[in-house]
Specification:
The chain is α/β, with parallel strands linked by helices. The chain has two domains: 221 residues, 3-Layer(aba) Sandwich (Rossmann fold), CATH 3.40.50.300; 72 residues, no CATH class. Helices cover 27% and strands 21% of the residues. A hairpin with a 2-residue loop joins β4 and β5. α3 packs across α4 and α5 runs parallel beside α6.
Length: 332
């Protein structure tokens, strides 16, 4: 498969404000030197704890947030420094589905209006009638009814609003979708319905997904490959099966512990807090496997067979985690 999206050395620094009138010279690096390639038709998961930089990366690749440094290359074209006018073509090709679709809808406009208008503005449809007919078709495809076209956002449940968000993204005929925790605010039964819908649509329209989440039990079933983040750094990248069977980084082990059954021993039960040392690996101050070298500098990326990579001086691979059930591409 050819590469659809590449990010190289992607970084984002935010200024730490000092109040209304003073600007602080201090900055916080939310994303630090991310290199990631997504192939056409692939579903790649981006996981990590809250604050690890997942959503910031998702918004940067769409240029909703401007990167501090690095490159964003889409289908061979460097998007990093394109103007808003030059990005118009790519705003159609690259779309996002938010965690809470309700917050991205205008409460004073009908659902139909809010899907039709972008289609006309970006030239996806030539006439209003053509756009309306396409929206009605999409509403049915995502499990809604044509009559929902004239309703307002507050008239829908959380699951229905998420389906509308999917229809709105698909209306622009995109190639690439960022799914920013699209099911985390929904009930478990509704989560499965939305995830299965997204899988069906991915196969039908040959879409490429960047799936942002923190629930590994969902990531396991949904994604082809998984990238693990911690404090803005990419610490491990592997295909879904490999990450679950042989995770090399302690952060991956920690996240896996959160979905292990109660009869399995946590792998990081010996975590210690070496808060006085600082520097080095971003996880060193909390890692039960840290050795002296971990506190000196952040480890270089180690590349294994099959595209598996990790950044760790002392990977705890002797305690392999094995899940007995095989990943399914349908959730029940």
């Amino acid at each position: 498969m050819q590469n659809l999206l590449e990010v190289k050395g992607l970084e984002k620094e935010f200024s730490l404000g000092n109040g209304f009138f003073k600007k602080s010279s201090k900055t916080f690096k939310a994303v630090n030197g991310i290199d990631l390639t997504i192939k056409k038709g692939e579903i790649i998961g981006l996981i990590g704890e809250s604050g690890s930089g997942k959503s910031t990366i998702g918004r940067m690749v769409l240029r909703l947030i401007e990167p501090s440094s690095g490159k964003i290359i889409y289908d061979g074209k460097d998007l990093t420094n394109l103007s808003h006018k030059e990005m118009k073509e790519y705003y159609r090709k690259m779309q996002i589905i938010f965690q809470d679709s309700a917050s991205s809808f205008n409460p004073r406009k009908t659902i139909g209006e809010q899907i039709v208008n972008p289609m006309l503005r970006l030239g996806v449809a030539n006439t209003k009638k053509e756009a309306e007919e396409e929206v009605l078709r999409l509403l049915v495809k995502v499990g809604l009814k044509e009559e929902h076209f004239i309703r307002y956002p507050h008239e829908f449940s959380g699951g229905q609003r998420q389906r509308i968000g999917i229809a709105r993204a698909l209306a622009l005929k995109p190639e690439f979708l960022v799914l920013d925790e699209p099911t985390s605010a929904l009930d478990v039964s509704i989560q499965a319905q939305i995830l299965n819908l997204l899988l069906d649509l991915q196969e039908e329209f040959n879409l490429t997904y960047l799936f942002i989440g923190h629930n590994l039990s969902i990531i396991k079933f949904f994604c082809d490959r998984v990238a693990v983040l911690y404090k803005g750094r990419l610490v491990e990248l592997a295909d879904s099966d490999t990450l679950y069977k042989t995770p090399y980084h302690p952060v991956s082990r920690m996240l896996l512990d959160s979905v292990l059954s109660l009869d399995k021993k946590p792998l990081l039960d010996n975590v210690n807090e070496n808060t006085g040392k600082g520097g080095g690996c971003v996880f060193s101050e909390k890692c039960g496997y840290a050795i002296d070298v971990c506190y000196g500098a952040h480890p270089e990326v180690v590349h294994l067979d099959g595209g598996h990579q990790y950044a760790c001086y002392n990977p705890p691979i002797e305690e392999g985690v094995e899940f007995q059930d095989e990943p399914q591409r349908k959730l029940s």
